[in-house]
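Appendix B, record 7
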Amino acid sequence: MTPEIRFIVDAMYGSLARWLRLLGYNTVYSDTKSDDEILRETDDRILLTRDKELIIRARKSTIHVLNPGSGSIRSMLQRLQEDLGIQFVANPNESRCPSCNGTLLLKRREDVQNQVPKGSLRNHNEFWQCSNSLCHQVYWQGRHWTRISNTLKQLKSDETKE
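Structure tokens (predicted):
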């Protein structure tokens, strides 16, 4: 089940946008959008920014805006979980392309063999490819997935300590 919460993220949170996409959240991000463009394109999305002026303008326009703070990805995700009352879960079948926000499609090894390093083909059975015709990036559960899983486990651990 794809998360229903959608985000729009300003230029300060590029890494957070990638994480939210990997966690399955439809997340609009561009480091070239002006504040006016961001406000026009919010479209029932939660705006994530720490820009005080943008926060004030968003609130005046009744746009749902949150400041995830600064620091580690883990601390920002923790704050979003608390503010939104959600639990982040990593599921590669629900993930979105971290580069472009496209949906990811499960692919057979044969379908991506010319786009993936030989070692990854040898060591992995599942691959996902971005459906965006301008992107078509291929992903698999490599070392980065271990880091993602560990970060989410730490989030759960932090919750049980409270």
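Remarks on this record: The longest strand covers residues 104-107. The mean pLDDT is 92.
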